[in-house]
Structure formats: C-alpha cells, structure tokens
Amino acid sequence: MTKKVTIYSTPTCHYCLGVKEFFKEHNISYNEHNVATDAARRKEMVDKSGQMGVPVITVSDQDGSNESLVIGFDEPQLAKLIGV
User: What would the pLDDT profile of 36-47 be if each residue is shown by its tens digit?
Assistant: First the structure.
C-alpha cells in the first residue's frame, strides 16, 4: 500500500537532505514543509512532535489514518514504515 509521507525540514539541515536522498533512492513521493519560512507549518510540527529540531517526518495511509511520527533521520524506522 502506498503511504502518505510528509517531511518538516529546513534548507540547511544536513539530516533533512539525507532523508530526502533516502526517499529519492527508494522512489518515495513526499510533501515537504519548510519550517524556516512557514510559521504555521512550524507550529503544526511542534504540536505534533513536541520538537523544534528537524527533520520531523509523518508516515500514514493515503487516507491519513495510522499516522506514525519519526523524529530525525531514523533510516531503519523509515524503511519499516514505508516498506522498503
């Protein structure tokens, strides 16, 4: 089943770039929110995760159910959630 993936990131975050490269290597589509310039998305990220650090990644079913939260570039957890 295809997953809905969202990453909250900043342009200068090394780990964010690593996550995006991981997604590219595995042909994973994702939505990206730049929390450096989007205050509303930054608040959304903090409300979801309790974190100010990036990346924060959400993985859910296409209908938005069964959402999982990954804080940081946790490659084994992402691979398990996405099924790669």
Answer: 999 999 999 999
